[in-house]
């Protein structure tokens, strides 16, 4: 038996929704998993590394960890992998790999995990629920994780908007991006930041995209501090607004940025941004509506 696992990438925060708001994107990590005696991993995408140690591969490590957590021994398999998610760019590549690794263990060990199990396990491993919940469920997720690692998620589908991501040819690891954040905020500052996050969440649920765009640009939690690490941060925000975007923010910790735009200007907007930022990869995308998908492939 062979399984096909498709996991959407994601954007997180969308400005002030720090560590709690995620959105699944139509950019995917795809695996085919075939049981066999030993582990074999084949990277089929050019952007994935061709040299690696299987026992250090994130998907193998996660699958092994989950199997052991449930008292199972992880069987061997042949894993073929393609990805549209560049590493360390703020598009949820690690969260997608974690969700995929959990599913590999679920299938090989017949763990019969529930959706809630997937949400809890992936968010616990990630340390926060934004990207992980969006990869599990797709659509818009607004989530909280308690001290015991239990995730509560408000999930909204049919996010009928267009998004454009600006992907630079540089990496920015989340650990580095967290290193520039302050440890404390004043009460007045925190109240303003929290209010902006609340308004962003409400606008997203109401699908009031003009307000979404406005509040995407009103973050106080992380973007003012991370902007210094991101190439063309302010230039992209200004040019995108002039070209008709509702708003622009860091995608996760960056360095990718993301704009929400009216669907009617997709082609002209992308063309203009490609002209303005030739050293970025400009990608038009939509919200993924399915989350992780697992299908069985018939074998002869």
What key phrases describe this protein's structure?
10 helices, alpha+beta, Alpha-Beta Plaits, 300 residues, seven-stranded mixed sheet, globular, 36% helix, four-stranded antiparallel sheet, Ribosomal Protein S5, domain 2, 2 domains
How would you describe this protein?
Helix content is 36%, strand content 27%. It is built from 10 helices and 11 strands. The protein has helices at residues 58-69, 93-109, 115-126, 130-137, 174-178, 187-206, 209-216, 223-226, 233-242, 266-276; strands at residues 2-13, 17-35, 40-43, 77-83, 140-145, 151-156, 162-167, 247-250, 257-261, 281-286, 293-297. The model has no long low-confidence stretch (mean pLDDT 95).
Strand content: 25-35%
Number of strands: 11
Mean pLDDT equals: 95
Q: How far apart are the first and last residues' alpha carbons, in Å?
A: 10 Å
Report the top-level CATH class of the largest domain.
Answer: Alpha Beta
Number of domains: 2
**Unreliable spans:** none
CATH topology name of the largest domain, in short, is: Ribosomal Protein S5, domain 2
Give the name of the CATH architecture of the largest domain. Answer: 2-Layer Sandwich
- Element order: H for helix, E for strand: EEEHEHHHEEEHHHHHEEHEE
Oligomeric grouping of the chains = single chain
What does this entry show, briefly?
This protein has helices at 58-69, 93-109, 115-126, 130-137, 174-178, 187-206, 209-216, 223-226, 233-242, 266-276; strands at 2-13, 17-35, 40-43, 77-83, 140-145, 151-156, 162-167, 247-250, 257-261, 281-286, 293-297.
């Amino acid at each position: 038996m062979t399984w096909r696992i498709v996991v959407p990438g994601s954007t997180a925060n969308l400005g002030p929704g720090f560590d709690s708001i995620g959105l699944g994107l139509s950019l995917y990590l795809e695996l085919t998993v075939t049981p066999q005696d030993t582990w074999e991993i084949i990277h089929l995408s050019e952007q994935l590394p061709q040299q690696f140690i299987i026992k250090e591969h994130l998907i193998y490590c996660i699958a092994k960890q989950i199997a052991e957590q449930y008292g199972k021994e992880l069987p061997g398999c042949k894993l073929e992998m393609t990805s549209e998610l560049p590493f360390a760019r703020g598009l949820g590549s690690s969260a997608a790999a974690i969700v995929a690794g959990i599913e590999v263990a679920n299938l090989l060990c017949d763990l019969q995990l529930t959706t809630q199990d997937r949400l809890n396990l992936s968010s616990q491993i990630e340390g926060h629920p934004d990207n992980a919940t969006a990869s599990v469920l797709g659509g818009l997720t607004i989530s909280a994780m308690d001290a015991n690692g239990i995730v509560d998620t408000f999930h909204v589908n049919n996010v009928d908007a267009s998004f454009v991501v600006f992907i630079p040819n540089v990496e920015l690891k989340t650990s580095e991006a967290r290193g520039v954040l302050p440890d404390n905020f004043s009460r007045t500052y925190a109240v303003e930041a929290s209010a902006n996050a609340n308004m962003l969440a409400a606008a997203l649920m109401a699908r009031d995209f003009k307000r979404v765009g406005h509040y995407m640009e009103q973050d106080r939690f992380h973007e003012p501090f991370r902007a210094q690490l991101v190439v063309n941060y302010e230039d992209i925000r200004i040019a995108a607004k002039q070209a008709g975007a509702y708003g622009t923010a860091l995608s996760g910790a960056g360095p990718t940025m993301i704009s929400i735009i009216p669907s009617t200007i997709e082609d002209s907007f992308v063309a203009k941004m490609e002209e303005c930022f030739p050293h970025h990869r400009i990608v038009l995308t939509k919200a993924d509506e399915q989350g992780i998908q697992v299908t069985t492939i018939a074998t002869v």
